[in-house]
Amino acid sequence: MDDNTNIPYEKLAQDCKIISPENPKAVIDSIIALSAKYPSEHLILIYNYFFEHSDCYEVLMFLLGKIDKYKDKSSRTLLIDSLLMKEKLSQRIKDGENVTRIRINITKALANTKDSQAVYPLLYCLNNKDENYKVKLSCADALGKIGDRYAVLPLMNIVEDESESSVYVKESAVSALGMLGDEKAVDSLVFILESKKGFLDKFTFLKERALEALNKLKFRGDRVFHALEKSLHDESPRIRINAIEVLMNSNDARAVDLIKQMLFDADAEVVKNAVTALYNLFDEDILEDIINNPQMTDNAKTAAINLKEYLKNNGEDDNE
């Protein structure tokens, strides 16, 4: 490690016994003690050096926590190399699960830096068909948190890639698109909702993530509207509830009639959410209309009465 601080890295590493320690806790205590001897700008360099040379899982995880706390650019290359060079890390840490845990925590640390330089290596891991799926999940989440719009198209490709066998990876990519907030992602999210065949239809939570992402994107367009309309007839009550929420926030005049239809849904929780959505779109008068409508279902009337009672006891502000 080249710097002008004259830090005795090798001696410190020997003194702290970071190589093959018999007692990892004692090593960690020794590292903690260094904070009384060195300023923070030197400590992060020491942590970087130790991380690069330690072969102890517990010590590496501790150092990662410290590196994550500092979020210093001097750690960027070290973190990226450790993420990409899995084999090199595996030579130091023999347990494969521990290697995976370290790499997952590296992606989290990279996400917390908000450094756009991390986007390319994260995308590389995400698109690597041989990569551990847990690492891929963490990479997708990190890309969403970093917020660089360059990641939008690659994430969209993962969502629409029928050869991607992990629905969990797709779920993470969908969530990341919601965090990125780019309207280009809308078509890929609708693709999830429109799927009729294959494994996509078997995992309702993937559709839930797509609806949540659409809610964040404040969708526009007929294709999205019709996909939401279809979602109101999904066999999963959770999907129907999510679709009601997205429609409520859509500012589309057609949404009101669709939500009103859900007052007749067979699921009481769906009906409750439809009543709440209509109240949010209008005011308390809509609750009176529901209660006094002789054609209205018992579930809808009960939900309206309960919401009205809640507002009376807690005030409108508590319901918002």
Question: Can you offer a commentary on this structure?
Answer:
- With 320 residues, the chain is mostly helical.
- It has helices at residues 9-16, 24-33, 40-53, 57-70, 76-84, 86-92, 96-113, 119-127, 133-146, 152-160, 167-180, 186-194, 204-217, 222-231, 237-248, 255-261, 268-281, 285-292, 298-314, 316-319.
- The termini are far apart.
Task: Describe the structure using short key phrases.
320 residues, mainly alpha, 20 helices
The overall average pLDDT, rounded, is: 88
Strand-residue proportion: under 5%
Number of helices: 20
| Shape type | elongated
Oligomeric organization of the protein chains: single chain
End-to-end Cα distance = 54 Å
- Into which percent range does the helicity of residues fall? 55-70%
**How would a textbook summarize the main sheet?**
none
Report the count of strand segments.
0
**Spatial extent as radius of gyration:** 26 Å
Unreliable runs: 197-201
Order of helices and strands: HHHHHHHHHHHHHHHHHHHH
- The structure class reads mainly alpha
